[in-house]
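wait is this the right file?? whatever heres the structure
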């Protein structure tokens, strides 16, 4: 499938349009799997790159992790969740074109940072934070302006519009002396959601730019009536194009012209099918094979296309007379991509020899044009391969249909064991330390965990166990990151679950669900987790107006669907039982949130936290127990029980110290939160010196959090803004009270890391930005996110060397735990 045949008219039309385009133009290339869409984009990019004054960008939606997890959610009625996701992902995509040193995009990068923070102010917690009361009586009261969903949507759309306009201005300057071609592959991932609509709208505004998207057809009507938008259907080869393909494929050894007629008749001119027939002709001998013999061979193929390609591949491999090649193709069909090690493991599980020489096998399959090499994120070739999708789907279906128990399931078991072995490097000390949770952010871990979940999900008829193990990974990603900031992994997990559920349901001979219910348990789980992700407030602010009762109902449904409290939890392996217990513990934490954040006085919140503490103790999970003591202490503060809050926070500090002494890892986020809660208690008691010191320690830990264990990311950046804003609010509240401001500010600034003398905190008024800028070390800019070498990290390294002392802060937590005299 490396020959480019046909499509000459389409190729010329695209190049002509690129040469003359003034306003933005979009070509929508549509075709089924195997029709040659990716090859068309590749050929177009090659031809365009040869043109003077033309720049080419190529984007693969699958490679960039965009567009997964939403369907049929776009336009005027687009949900808040999809608008937020589109805002975040569109920013990522635009930044691909705006990387330094392109000076034209300097203003855009600044606008992107500004609009991102503007969106944050309305997104996090669905509230605009404007300050706290100066003194707490019976409970901590947060003054917020709760923003209705329609207002959130309006502001996100406005921020999207501003950032789009900034990009357009930069792009207009960028294209003054050049034309640009952008090819976008696997566009079907976003065609039926707001991301696809956004990209089309923006593309039509970009001057001197042609964007060519490629996608498979769908039931969804995609496109616009603009004359700048053209649909380009890729049809099957004509008989003449099939003749041309075979002539170019075999060169001087031109086969009988009648072979092309037979090939076209049996494949309907499907380019991938024609390529397979050419492989068969080549293996049988192009000069010797006649049309009648080819007709006889192809007449044995099934009439159904999904089965036809698998049988044709089988026929080719029989002609090669190497059984290991056929076995390799069938083994590889159950996985999305593979390398030599995975292929060896699969072939051993399938009864092959020792699985050696897989490199030779991969080379021969590439020679037969059955494989394609998967590009790395850099665009360079990687060591991973995949069967062409139309081949993989057909071969996998055939294997599943005819050899489900003796081969298909054992192959999935071997794949699951392969990925489980890779995961052991991260998970040997599972949950033993705070640092181990950072695996959730590692792209390699994410890919391997998703593959393990998919293959493991094919093995057991006990679907409740499968649902529980998937739910555990999903809830861990929410607990670790997505409850505070959007986390792409969660949407990808939902997409994976849908894909795995579809494959699993295809193995059942009868429908397991009654007409009255209409949805399977797997589908109900998808709906419940999606509701949780869409409606759980993403921020440290959790307004009482959130749909907490509905969220609680979904969590209880998830618990039931996963069989966490029923017979399903008993008939399990030790590993399965631990995963189910851990999923149940996390559900209990979120159940506590549904009670606490709706009404802190609800006694059920207390009992849920106590239950969570007990469950994490049974699991030996000391890190989560430390976090539960912090949250339990924060709940006591919200209920006005200041002594109990101090006692629980002191216990949190003791456990955090014990963990750090054992693992040599400090959880600076947890410590910042604990000191902040302690500071709120001192503030409520009107103890300004100790309140200032505790807020200062909270700021210090939030600052250290941005450089440990890695460079700052979006999460640690936002957390630093949160903690410094809380401290700045206290300074602002004392602006007209110089007597308490002095001791408060002196204690605060004594704990904040800095070089030189502390600044003067008087005369700053109530401007929170000015207070934060004057009193606290600067956080990273958006351009410094995830960079180990930056001006921010240079300053951080100097301050950390001179000032970091987490132990002193923990001693203060314990020392101040006695009741207020």
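ok assuming it is, sequence goes like this
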């Amino acid at each position: 499938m490396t020959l480019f045949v046909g499509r000459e008219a389409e190729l010329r039309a695209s190049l002509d349009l690129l040469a003359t385009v003034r306003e933005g133009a979009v070509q929508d290339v549509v075709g089924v799997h195997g029709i040659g869409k990716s090859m068309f984009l590749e050929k177009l990019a090659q031809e365009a790159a040869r043109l003077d004054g033309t720049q080419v960008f190529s984007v693969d939606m699958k490679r960039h992790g965009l567009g997964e997890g939403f369907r049929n959610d776009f336009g005027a009625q687009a949900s808040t969740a999809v608008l937020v996701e589109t805002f975040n992902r569109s920013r990522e995509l635009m930044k691909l074109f705006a990387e330094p040193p392109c000076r034209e995009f300097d203003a855009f990068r600044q606008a992107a940072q500004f609009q991102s923070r503007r969106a944050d102010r309305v997104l996090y917690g669905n509230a605009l934070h404007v300050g706290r009361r100066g003194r707490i009586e019976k409970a901590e009261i947060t003054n917020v302006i709760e923003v209705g969903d329609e207002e959130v949507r309006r502001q996100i759309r406005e921020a999207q519009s501003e950032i789009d306009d900034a990009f357009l201005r930069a792009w207009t300057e960028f294209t003054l002396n050049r034309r640009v071609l952008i090819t976008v592959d696997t566009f079907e991932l976003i065609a039926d959601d707001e991301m696809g609509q956004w990209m089309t709208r923006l593309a039509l505004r970009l001057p001197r730019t042609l964007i060519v998207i490629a996608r498979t057809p769908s039931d969804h009507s995609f496109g616009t009536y603009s004359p700048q938008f053209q649909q380009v259907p890729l049809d099957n080869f004509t008989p003449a194009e099939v003749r041309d393909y075979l002539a170019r494929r075999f060169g001087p050894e031109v086969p009988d012209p009648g072979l092309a007629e037979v090939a076209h008749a049996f494949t309907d001119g499907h380019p991938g099918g024609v390529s397979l027939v050419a492989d068969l002709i080549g293996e049988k001998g192009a000069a010797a094979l006649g049309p009648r013999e080819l007709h006889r061979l192809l007449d044995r193929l099934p009439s159904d296309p999904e089965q036809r390609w698998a049988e044709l591949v089988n026929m080719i491999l029989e002609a090669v007379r190497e059984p290991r090649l056929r076995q390799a193709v069938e083994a590889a069909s159950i996985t999305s991509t593979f390398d030599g090690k995975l292929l060896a493991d699969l072939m051993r599980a399938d009864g092959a020899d020792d699985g050696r020489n897989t490199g030779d096998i991969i080379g021969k399959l590439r020679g037969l044009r059955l494989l394609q090499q998967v590009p790395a994120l850099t665009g360079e070739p990687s060591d991973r391969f995949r069967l062409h999708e139309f081949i993989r789907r057909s071969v996998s279906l055939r294997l599943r249909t005819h050899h489900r128990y003796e081969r298909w399931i054992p192959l999935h078991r071997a794949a699951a064991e392969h990925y489980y072995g890779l995961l052991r490097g991260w998970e040997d000390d599972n949950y033993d330390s705070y640092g181990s949770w950072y695996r959730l952010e590692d792209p390699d871990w994410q890919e391997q965990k998703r593959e393990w979940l998919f293959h493991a999900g094919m093995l057991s008829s006990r679907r409740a166990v499968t649902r529980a193990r998937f739910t555990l990974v999903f809830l861990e990603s929410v607990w670790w990151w997505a409850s505070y900031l959007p986390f792409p992994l969660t949407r990808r997990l939902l997409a994976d679950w849908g894909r795995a559920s579809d494959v699993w349901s295809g193995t059942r001979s009868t429908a397991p669900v009654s007409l009255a219910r209409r949805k399977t348990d797997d589908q109900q789980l998808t709906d419940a987790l999606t509701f949780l992700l869409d409606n759980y407030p993403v921020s440290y602010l959790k307004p009482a107006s959130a749909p907490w009762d509905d969220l609680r109902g979904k969590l209880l449904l998830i618990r039931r669907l996963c069989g966490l409290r029923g017979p399903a939890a008993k008939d399990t392996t030790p590993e399965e039982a631990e995963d189910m217990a851990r999923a149940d513990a996390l559900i209990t934490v979120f159940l506590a949130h549904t009670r606490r954040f709706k009404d802190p006085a609800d006694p059920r919140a207390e009992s849920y936290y106590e239950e969570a503490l007990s469950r994490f103790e049974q699991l030996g999970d000391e890190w989560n127990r430390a976090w539960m003591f912090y949250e339990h202490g924060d709940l006591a503060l919200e209920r006005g029980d200041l002594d109990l809050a101090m006692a629980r926070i002191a216990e949190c500090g003791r456990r955090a110290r014990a963990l750090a002494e054992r693992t040599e890892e400090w959880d600076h986020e947890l410590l910042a939160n604990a000191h902040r809660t302690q500071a709120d208690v001192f503030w409520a008691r009107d103890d300004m010196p100790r309140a200032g010191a505790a807020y200062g320690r909270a700021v210090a830990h939030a600052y250290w959090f941005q450089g440990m264990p890695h460079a700052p990311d979006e999460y640690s950046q936002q957390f630093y803004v949160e903690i410094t804003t809380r401290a700045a609010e206290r300074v602002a509240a004392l602006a007209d009270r110089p007597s308490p401001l002095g001791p408060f500010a002196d204690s605060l600034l004594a704990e904040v890391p800095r070089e030189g003398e502390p600044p003067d905190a008087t005369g700053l008024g109530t401007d929170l930005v000015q207070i934060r800028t004057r009193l606290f070390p600067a956080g990273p800019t958006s351009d410094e996110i995830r960079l180990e070498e930056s001006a921010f990290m240079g300053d951080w390294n100097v301050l950390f060397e001179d000032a970091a002392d987490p132990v002193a802060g923990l001693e203060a937590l314990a020392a101040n735990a006695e009741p207020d005299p």
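Residues 124-147, 509-516 have pLDDT under 50 and may be disordered. so i think its the right one actually
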